[in-house]
Amino acid sequence: MFYNVHCHHLQVFEKEIKIYNVLGLETPPQHHFFSAGFHPWQELVQATKDYYQERLLPIWSNQYCIAIGEIGLDKVKGPEWKDQIHSFQTQLYLSKEFDKPVIIHCVKAYYEVLSLLKRVKWDKPYIFHGFNKSYRLAKELLQKGAILSFGMPLREYAFMQEVFMPLWRDYPTQILLETDTHIQPVRLLYQQIANALNVALSNLCEIIEMNVKNTFNLPDIKV
Ligand SMILES: [Zn+2]
Fold first, then answer.
1. Distance in Å, CA 1 to ligand 1 centroid
2. Mean pLDDT throughout 159-167?
């Protein structure tokens, strides 16, 4: 199977298992794994802790909800910084009672995200999705225990060679794959990586599947 841990569409592709991202109060899809939370771009100035609690707890309790997120911090886009911090921190606090990892949207705020995770004593896996920064930053995050999910930048030769390949060599258990907003089979990314690494596609699938199962508690239900 081809696991796609973060995407925004429900297009069916052969042998693909995806985690659909539910944005805020959107109705979750039926019979589909999903993650849910308020994206940092969502304007929630008036939102109190009760607001999040009443709306998110029922969604997070859904058996198909296998991750919290995407939630996070964005220094380039979105509401005022203090409102983003409030939203991210409140959702982290409230979701701690669920045994689910968090999928993080992070733009130029890696250290702030790490310090918030520390502040709330986050003890479950945390995934920086759509990673497209340097090898150096990736290495630092991975050494702290983060999981990185990779998508479209893998199509760029330099990123594949200089960032992804050395990471794959050193931290193969902390890597996941996704298509995010792109409507295309995640299999294409798998194929690209298999070619670059010169390994069998089935081999790569096995490793990513193991990483997925170590990161998420996949319930034994039909998807
Ligand atoms: Zn996304």
1. 21
2. 97
pLDDT at 46 over 90: no
The mean pLDDT of 8-21, rounded to a whole number, is 96
How many Å lie between the centroid of ligand 1 and the Cα of residue 108? 16
- CA–centroid distance, 181 to ligand 1, in Å, is 6
Q: Is domain 2-215 classified as CATH 3.20.20.140? A: yes
Between the CA of 104 and the centroid of ligand 1 the distance, in Å, is 9
Strand order across the 102-107 sheet? 2-7, 16-23, 34-37, 65-74, 102-107, 126-128, 147-150, 175-177
Q: How far is the CA of 153 from the centre of ligand 1 (A)?
A: 14
pTM: 0.97
